[in-house]
């Protein structure tokens, strides 16, 4: 497989089309949302790609519910899609563990083997790490979720 | 015109162009971002550092004299190249700094610096500053900041659908309140060559300063600032075969001598005491501290190289490439190009979007085929927003670009949609 | 310490030092103005232009990635060299620009730009800015201009007869009104090393920003900005074996992220519209437009070269030269040296006047003997006025300076007064 | 003769010591001065050398009277001295002719033969033209006289 094919694995191209979690946003004034709510808008200044990521923490189970809207390249859209799918089964602490693993993978320049158990479909992003200019694309939604999660937890703290 | 043989000889002067990228011949079509450097430019810097390096305008010793001579020769050659007097060229690190020097000069004047001579540069509430919707951020944000600092109003000339400026409203947008009209000679995205004479005439009518962003004209066509009759102009060395780290501000001599300096420090004052300061005339008043001396020498060599080729020949060669690229891109299914069609009204810089494939992905695919293009908003977000595109792919040529480069690019472009499964 | 053999090996790394000047071996003693460049620095730039040149942080293509890597490696290496975090190093064209960026950042904040985060940087009437009487104009005029723009008062710490700062009045001059205390680490004329800790402590006491001009320290001794605990610092590439056209501003991360940007344009904003703008965090917010990329790469190589030698060794070598030069100059009849005597409190930069012979004439005579020194006020007019001298001659060393250079200089100096018929 | 000896000819070193015309200045408020008076202060920014040159035009004969004060290197001091001596025998138009010849000589990089008839002692400055960094020193007083002369003539015009 060429580097390019590793970058654009079928699973990534599929997620880029499917856009799991890409749903109408609730917004700050949203009705019926969890009190543990956060929202973060992130921009990739090079290309103007942007994403808004919303998260709700279920007050009872601690589970995350994610929705997002945005535009961008296949890597950033696929990453948001994969992340949304992954996040469904996680609580905040588990997400942080996965996020760190993903972050490390992205900065490995192709030298770290992805932990498929932990990362699931996100392991397919291993090929991105050989393309330093694209790492930002892959991380955009992860940064947005980290940021919105911090807000959601603060919202909880301030109750 | 340059013959094919001449162009391939030119290509050989650029060591970087000989390399392979991702297993393919390199087709460098990102000259709009920065140009490659001929051997003579590289050698000029090496020679300077190896034989003449020293502080300029400061020392009486032999090396200092040799360095000063080389430095001022670079200025004289560059001035001649753009139709300016030698003392009308101020060195900056890039075109961005050059445009900021004008904006901050006006801000300083507006804050009361520079004495009576600088009064003509004052602006405030009730005044307006006009740019265009196609500007590179370098010729946009400094004016917005100046408006914020002075209370002047910021306005802009809009873009038409065809990639030209919409000038129907020129008379009402540029009016008697207008103190600055800033516009680009050539759009770095659309390739459009703007009607400088018409814009300058309007600036003159209302007594506004005409500030020209010449970044994308000076490398690609003969430019004569005196003939264009602009008040200030900016361009960058790295886009015209010269080194990084050097740009220039052109200003009409009487304006430069009256504009308050911006960066202050050594080598730009006549006397300074703990409570007073007198500045030198231009260009020195704007050249505080140690200048990019080796880079000026390198730029002088670049200017010599271009002069030898002849800028008419360069422009004719690139006009041919422009036509070829426009026609080629327009033939690729699912590609939407922005910017004018007509030869003669554009340079060889072609921006487009590919239906269903984001520009980042287009660029990545092309790179895998050895084709270097730029993707993104090319520091022109308002322009992209105007055409409702977040990011485009841009292929841009320079004097060393060949038809083979274009073919390699067009061939790869034709395969993009298939690779991403959208056709 | 460097052995004699090591120093002559070092000398061989600098192609320019091998040349003859006016029929004599070149004794280059003008390193205080600008340093010479080792072959590895020259090669780094050539290699960059020949194999990796491209726009950085903008392109997705392979060359752009290679260029970005080289550029950011230069930043990381330089940051490590001066004891800073990578994102605390902002590129400028020279130290002068770096100091101006701080001054204009404060001016912009004072004019209301930069929002709530920038409020801490506001100053106005009733506030004071303090510099010293030994400052290079680059660390003097920007502060005087800032005072003019904001209405703050400009004050200075005076010089004692022995070439040290007179700090008896420190507590009254730097008082609760003081918002900025700007001072040089090492005087470029006197060679004096200032007591940074004492000055920073006073700045902290009154809540002033401590701004360090590190132009003459970074090339000559180990410097760690975190350890010095200054808020901002400036230094220049060309004085530390690096290329011309590159300098750096150090700032504590939290300050840099809050200070309003100065030069505005491309690659420093997240979004811009015709009526709004959002800036990126540091360092990008201060790096508008195409940066001196090849020069950053060259500086990275210079830093590597110095690191390999070891800055402790460099400092020890130059301390020896300082002692030798001071003793040698003091032995020449009719010569009056300014600046401290003691080793350990000065660098190897020695300024003096020759009774009955103007500095220009001294320099000219020395040049005829192959000795390159600087003459004039060295961009420190207030300092010269303090010692009632219009111009001095300055001999200044760097890591490649040898005892032979010093002997050639001292020998020629001994003949000056005879040549001009004053002894 | 070496370049250095050509630069520092004895005649130059002598003038640098003698400082012909270096006299107390009359100043703007000076008593008994000609109505055709001008004064100019010039600075060499590199070294801080400076000179103030005063000129009076004799209203009857048109002859110039020059006095100056300043400090600087031997080249600038000698030049002021030589100039003061020369100017005594000149009117404004003649000075302009001499000045142009001197200016041309200074910028000749040692390639023009000095016209000794016209330039007198100033011909000795030929050696300076090989030292570009010193040309400014030689020209400082000439610039000051040109400038003060322009003022003196304007003073005449405004009467
Ligand atoms: C102490 C000091 N500060 C500032 C500067 C200015 O540095 P640059 O000219 O590189 O901006 C210099 C050198 O000229 C210097 O010696
Ligand atoms: C039209 C235009 N203006 C301004 C600039 C800014 O030039 P620089 O980045 O060299 O300052 C560019 C290039 O990026 C440009 O294309």
TrEMBL record, chains A, D:
Domain NIF system FeS cluster assembly NifU N-terminal positions: 8-137
Name of this chain's protein: SUF system NifU family Fe-S cluster assembly protein
Organism of provenance: Brevibacterium daeguense
Highest taxon, organism lineage: Bacteria
Record CDD domains: IscU_like (cd06664)
NCBIfam families: SUF_scaf_2
Signal peptide: none
Pfam family, one: NifU_N
TrEMBL record, chains B, C:
Alphabetical UniProt keywords: Pyridoxal phosphate, Transferase
Cofactor list: pyridoxal 5'-phosphate
EC number: 2.8.1.7
Keyword Signal included in the entry's annotation: no
Reaction it catalyzes: (sulfur carrier)-H + L-cysteine = (sulfur carrier)-SH + L-alanine
Entry-linked InterPro entries: Aminotrans_V_dom (IPR000192), Aminotrans_V_PyrdxlP_BS (IPR020578), Cys_dSase_SufS (IPR010970), PyrdxlP-dep_Trfase (IPR015424), PyrdxlP-dep_Trfase_major (IPR015421), PyrdxlP-dep_Trfase_small (IPR015422)
Ranges of residues in domain Aminotransferase class V: 28-409
PROSITE patterns for this protein: AA_TRANSFER_CLASS_5
Enzyme class, UniProt record, top EC level: transferase
Role played: Catalyzes the removal of elemental sulfur and selenium atoms from L-cysteine, L-cystine, L-selenocysteine, and L-selenocystine to produce L-alanine.
Alphabetized PANTHER family for the sequence: CYSTEINE DESULFURASE, CYSTEINE DESULFURASE 1, CHLOROPLASTIC
Family to which the UniProt record says this protein belongs: Belongs to the class-V pyridoxal-phosphate-dependent aminotransferase family. Csd subfamily.
Protein name per UniProt: Cysteine desulfurase
Organism: Brevibacterium daeguense
Organism lineage: Bacteria, Bacillati, Actinomycetota, Actinomycetes, Micrococcales
